Amino acid sequence: MRDWILKVENLTKIYGDGCPNCLKSETNKCSFCRATIAVNSVSLTLYGGEILGIMGESGSGKSTLVRNLYFDIPPTLGEAYLNKERRNIFELNSQEKRKLRNFNMGMVYQSPYLGLNFEITAGGNVAEKLLMANWRSYSNIRRRLIDLFEKTELPLNRMDDFSATLSGGMQQRIQIAKALANNPEILFLDEPTSGLDLSVQARLLDLIKKIQQELKISIILVSHDLGVIRLLAGRVLVMREGRIIESGLTDQILEDPQHPYTQLLVNSML
Amino acid sequence: MPEMIKGYNFAFIDEYAKREIRRKILKAVSIPGYQVPFGSRELPIARGWGTGGLQITLSLIGKEDILKVIDQGCDDSVNAVNIKRFIKATTGISITADTLKATIIQTRHRIPEEEMGDKQILVFQVPYPEPLRLVEPQEAQTRRMHAEMDYAKIWVFLYENIVKWKEITIGARYPVFVNGRYIMDPSPIPRYDVPRLNYARTLYLFGAGREKRIYAVPPFTEVKPLEFKDHRFRIEDFTAKSCALCGSKDTFLDEIIEGDRRIFACSDTSFCKKRRENPNIPKSSVKK
Fold first, then answer.
1. What are phi and psi of B53, to 5 degrees?
2. CB–CB of A137 and B160 under 8 A?
3. Catalytic annotation on B272?
């Protein structure tokens, strides 16, 4: 068995005051207090070098889950541990969280508007991560940027253009370059290819696959697109109404789904 | 100078207000580079015209003090003269133009040329105390950034400066890193004065009246301009230029356009006067 990298236990995110009945709720709307339970008692383990897929319909809590883990949104309950950081990472102070976020994690959001600053250049967006990690030599930063741009197949001559002027596919690549800048252990991909046309999607997926094999990075991949999941993920969790309803090897889940909802989901595939 | 006016407390503001400001100054000195909020009082001059520096000066000043006020190095400009007249009228203390004789110097945008000693205090008037305002408009965000030492945004600004212009284009208000902890706005002093904040013998106090902040650089504190290893901070270049009045080559010069002629003259007028009387007078009389 490979070593685990990230362990999540009973992660819950409730929007609203919440009540003792919330966690027992079948749906993500508590019938007693009307609070929204976006993520309900989710436990998962991410192993070294694997791609763990999370699939489910929109509103099932997939994005909230990864944003909890990336410290964008504080969870209501639950614990998470990194292999080397044996304390509950949600209990760290904001400076320690920032450090984990910068050095151990990378994130690619569905919308580049969430992950990039459009007022600065493409290179500047990636350099921000390096500067956070106290890179203080301009020429070293430029060298690292060229390296990352080549790795993510971004045109070098667009490095000093404003991020807003680049195409959607390129913006997603900038996000990936930014996420990879400090060689993180974990990469969160939140619907990285939705909204892109098919050829760009395919190239981006190839790129993710290549990077994962090259760098042996562990990835949590959120997608509602079963094709993307099938192509990339080795293991998959199915989420519905904030809960994990089924989990297993990707082939097993897609070929022989057990839960009625998963069966419905797989049968709806075009 | 007018006679001392009656009916006001010594140094105009009341003793409770002075005590609050002194307490905030102590806090600022204890945390070098940290901006301490204070209750900025109404004064007979408008906010944004040196009221922050003025309130620090008024809170510290005693009957024995000797005051000097400069505006961009000049003792005789309107702002400096008015502030001096106001303090004189409410305290009766003596005023000087000599940097070495003053116990408190209030300044707008310059550090006097002559090196100050450890018994003196230099009070800066600050228009914008927040160095991160350049890259982040929200106060709540900049406070969080200072608290977490999240300074990447201003570094990205410097990085992009080099990308665009091959150098950092900030002139005055060059951001500095104080005591290895806070990034601080040194007030709009020229780059020339920035290295003189580092390990200085004098207590430097900064007051922003409109923005209601006090901060400080205590004596012998490390103050480093933000720079890249391969793009070093550099000061204004006065190579082959000298003061048209006193001939100094080692001072900060103002460029003056006279008709179709450009001449340069010392920005520190009192030191220029001293040099005209004795061209060999050194900038530092401190024994080391």
1. -60, -40
2. no
3. yes
Sign of the torsion formed by the C-alpha atoms of A201, A204, A205 and A206: positive
Say if CB A106 and CB A121 are below 8 A apart.
no
- CB of A224 closer than 8 Å to CB of A61: no
Query: Which tokens hold the place of A231?
Result: 């192509």
Q: pLDDT tens digits, residue range B66-78?
A: 999 999 999 999 9
Cα A223 to chain centroid distance, Å, stands at: 10
The size of the A-B interface in CB pairs under 8 A is: 44
Count the residues in chain B. Answer: 288
Other beta carbons within 10 Å of B217: 28
Contact A121 B228 (CB under 8 A): no
Is residue A222 pLDDT above 60, yes or no?
Answer: yes
Q: What is the CB-side half-sphere exposure of residue A110 using CA atoms within 13 A?
A: 14
- Sheet with B182-184: list strands edge to edge: B182-184, B176-178, B223-225
Closest of B170, B181, B107, B178 to residue B133, by C-alpha: B170
CB neighbours (10 Å) of residue A157?
Answer: 8
SS (H, E, C) B184-214: ECCCCCCHHHHHHHCCCCCEEEEEECCCCEE
Question: CA B226 → CA A143, B23, B160, distances in Å?
Answer: 21, 30, 14
Task: Find all residues with CB under 8 Å of A52, minimum gap 6, and list them.
Answer: A44, A46, A218, A219, A220, A221, A233, A234, A235, A236, A237
| Number of alpha carbons in the 13 Å side-chain half-sphere of residue B43 | 29
A84 touches chain B (CB under 8 A): no
Q: What is the pLDDT of residue A46?
A: 95
Residue A52: count of CB within 10 angstroms of its CB: 22
Are residues B32 and B205 in contact, defined by beta-carbon separation less than 8 angstroms? no
Q: What is the pLDDT of residues B185-218, one digit of tens each?
A: 999 999 999 999 999 999 999 999 999 999 999 9
Half-sphere exposure of A15 (CA within 13 A, CB side): 10
Complex ipTM: 0.86
Q: How far is B181 from chain A (nearest CA, A)?
A: 13
Angle between helices B15-30 and B51-60 (to 10 degrees): 100
Contact A94 B230 (CB under 8 A): no
Nearest by CB to A124, from B150, B160, B228: name it: B160
